Amino acid sequence: MALAFICFLLFLAGGITFSVELQDNLDKQWTSSQSYPNEPEHSCSYWDVLQYLNLTKNNDMYTMTRPVKNSKNGTQVEIEMRIYTILDVREADQTFILYVWLFMDWKNEYIGWNENYFCGITEVAVPREALWMPDITIEEMTEKDKAPPSPFLSVFSDGWVKYRDDKIVMSTCKMHIFYFPFDIQRCSLSFKSILYNDEQLNININGNSTDITKKSLDTIRMQYEWKLLNITAENITGDYFGSNQDVIVYTITMERKSALYIVNFLLPVLFFLCLDFASLLMSNSGEKISFKITVLLAVTVMQLILNEILPFTSSRIPLIVIYCIGIFAMMLLSLLESILVNYVMEIDSSSKEDMTENDSKLKIKNASPIASAYNEMTDETPSTYNEGSSRQLTELFLAVEKVSDELGEMKKTFLGKKSEEKKSGYWTEVAKKIDKIFSIVYVLGALVFLSVIFLKWVVKSFKMKQRGTFEQHGQRFFKEPPPS
């Protein structure tokens, strides 16, 4: 009986031990099912992580195809762009050049590890050639990126891969230069895949427009002649070559710093117009015409400089061109008016010269009979005088009467000269009236023209700044007018 009881106790103890061992085995299997296969214990180096991921050698499995375990699943890609420098905006060929920071995150379903088994390592850096990367391109780019690509990718334990790259983007941008140099330009950058459609590659924006603008304003270092106002990001789906693709469109709004153009262009042209105003105080002569021609040629040189700045493909004539042409036309009219006034005044000058020549001839003609009579009287001898005194007295009487007649004619000639002088000053008075009226109209017309031009510049600049402020807060109250 005692032996049977001892055997029963031994059997009971063995069953309990077996159940405990069985439970331990089940716990180990559950734990292993929750972790990654073949995962080492307590490895604390990056090399151990790479060995675990099979990234220490060339593994085509990670680079040949899109990293999804089910081909029907789409790869999630998040994109964020920040502007570091606005390098150049070329109006002549409508090109936009800037230096950007590009951040891309995507999910790789074949990459991942439990950081608890690797001393808390959550991130490793691998060469960009070791893993698959989304083929994201910028649709508006016209030249290949000249900046060297970033050589590494950041791989995280949850399977997300992050890539940061610096790019020099030279893209096309349709510019509206009607209000140059007080214009605000909007250039877009469209990020899309070259090959994958929207079901295979899901491209999303990392952040909202307000955050993107704030980060870019904090990041930006140099803007040259442009000031960044805001950046708006929009996620759209477009039809490209028969397939739908996700596209992220970044719209960059920037304002031109116009102070340099005001000092170097607008003010000099305005000063030339003021010089033309001052020439109205000069007497009408050849020197005045020469001065006006010199000022007109100076404005022509400024127009040639402007022609090198503005693009040839502009659909509307910019206000600055209207400004220059208007000033040039007014100065040309002023020059033509001076030529007309000089021509009218020359009519009086030519009539005075004709009268002076006629008076000199008349004096010579009137003086010749008197001189001949005087010579005849002085040439007479005393003997002749005694012989024919009566005849001499008669001749002397006739000579005196002739002299009196000639004096009357000279008096009439002198009075006629006075009346002709009065008549000859008529055209000079007409020329002075024309010059006075034209000067008043010219100055008033120029002031009205300049007021309209500058008012359009100021009002449009104010509206565009308001629109940029509203867009920065996600509101759109103004619509861009279609190009005419």
From TrEMBL:
It is a multi-pass membrane protein. Keywords: Ion channel, Ion transport, Membrane, Signal, Transmembrane, Transmembrane helix, Transport. Residues 1-19 form the signal peptide. InterPro entries: Neur_chan_lig-bd (IPR006202), Neur_chan_lig-bd_sf (IPR036734), Neur_channel (IPR006201), Neuro-gated_channel_TM_sf (IPR036719), Neuro_actylchol_rec (IPR038050), Neurotrans-gated_channel_TM (IPR006029), Neurotransmitter_ion_chnl_CS (IPR018000). The keyword Flavoprotein does not apply. It is found in: Membrane. Residues 281-378 form the Neurotransmitter-gated ion-channel transmembrane domain. Residues 63-257 form the Neurotransmitter-gated ion-channel ligand-binding domain. This is 5-hydroxytryptamine receptor 3A-like. Belongs to the ligand-gated ion channel (TC 1.A.9) family. PANTHER family: NEUROTRANSMITTER GATED ION CHANNEL. It comes from Characodon lateralis. The keyword Protein biosynthesis does not apply.
